[in-house]
Amino acid sequence: MLRVRSPRPxxxxxxxxxxxxxxxxxxxxxxxxxxPDDYPTIxxxxxxxxxxxxxxIVAPETYNExxxxxxxxxxxxSADGPEVTIIDGTGLDTSVVSCVTGEGAExxxxxxxxxxxxxxxxxxxxxxxGMYNVDSSPTVSNCLFAANxxxxxxxxxxxxGMYNxxxxxxxxxxxxxxxxxxxxxxxxHNRYSDAxxxxxxxxxxxxxxxxxGMSNSSADPTVTSCTFDGNTAAESGGAMDxxxxxxxxxxxxxxxxxxxxxxxxxxxxxxxLTATNCTFTDNSAQxxxxxxxxxxxxxxxxxxxxxxxxxxxxxxxxxxxSGPHITGCSFIANSAEDYGGGMLNEFADLALLHSAFxxxxxxGGRLIQRQMINATVTNxxxxxxxGPYGGGMCNFMCFGxxxxxxxxxxxxxxxxxxxxxxxxxxxxxxINCTFTGNDAWGIANIxxxxxxxxxxxxxxxxxxxxxxDPGEPIVTYCDVQGGYEGQGNIxxxxxxxxxxxxxxxLTSGSPCIDAGDSTALPPEVLTDLDGNPRFVDDPYTQxxxxxxxxxxxxxxxxxxxxxxxxxxxxxxxxxxxxxxLLGAWGTPDGDVDGDxxxxxxxxxxxLAAWGECP
Length: 614
What we know:
By secondary structure, the chain is mainly beta. Helices cover about 5% and strands about 35% of the residues. The protein is elongated and about 100 Å long.
């Protein structure tokens, strides 16, 4: 007789296997833990949250404790936001929050006010008043780091609000306000960290050292859509200080920050920062670089605005021993007591960088080596800046190649010169720039400065166009009011579209059209200040420059006549335009081909263009 075994032993075995998958008697699944309902303190809840993905929800209250995530991938968040949920480390002699056990992005801190921390003591130094992250990359969002103060009695102190070392935390939508650190990083300090900081505000943070808002040492953070407002540093970098670092900044605002040097951003020791679409407004420095300071660094600055910044030297920007690439930027109403209201380039011989650091520069084990390159200032506007020497820009003591300035507009600046060259003895190319409406000389060359000026328009400046005291610039293919000796130079009204309204583009018939030297432009420069193509031939203008097609003079390239035979501007060439031309016969009024007279050639051009305008 066939016997059927009971299934109970098999079920008991399966149940035993399931029991082995339990930890501490709990099933292996995410749980929700409530503070203070389940545990009276946040740290006790973390201690019990042993599983990845557990969620700890903290009720509104002030919790006087310091917490450590213990390497756990958990989501710790408030129930009702940072305004009513506070972790206060006052009296606890440490950082308020710590991640020091390899925490990753799944370790999440969200929705708290972090305050009262004095930093973690390591030997004689303190780090991270509000939060201390070492070898960890947690996610921090919607938190307020306020009034944390790294103990000033420490030998060194870093990161008043947050300290990140050898990890890449993600910090989103947070506010850092009124935090302090005695050495670097009132708001945040990053060391060997590629932190991602997005949508954050750094306000009223301070340090007696470097980087009131943020400091970076051998770190490459990405900072996007952040605001740095009213931060201060007694040394340098009111908003941000970078040393051997390559941060990337996008869509950030720097306003009302202050430091002894570099009210906005300080870049030193080969800090090749990249800044795109950022604004620097009303920042100030007691000495150098109100908005931005570069020292032995090669930052790339694109589509940024520097407005209302002040300093003793370099109101908008100060550059020394550096090769920054500055493109599409505006320098507006900046001021300096001495040199360079908008920008000061000082000691700009980049070969000195190699000689100063030898083969490279080392800091904390990181070796940096760079090939030196020259500074370029391209497609920038300098407007309404003020400085005794160089209202818009001053190039001071350029031993070797100075910066190359291309496609720039200098208007409404005040000082000795809109662009002043002081003791610049070697090559300093100024190409396709427009100087107009400045309460200064257009270009002032002092102490034997001899720039190479090509394809420029210097017209309508209050004092004059080119001052040499002494200097021997080479000026060619330029339109200089009052005239200037040199090949291809002219002295004729450039016929701006609307100079009173601030439009310095060229109108049809301008003597500056097709009158420049096309070989003078750097090969990579293919557009004008508007971003329109260079080298646009006007078929109705006789070429008087070099090359084909000939480039125009000035910062803007004339883009062609459009529909020159449409005299009544109704969008087509028709009988009304023909009658106008015939009525203007023998005068300049019906001139289509640009020869200054209305004749048979113009009649043929009109007939060829008959119909709707392109």
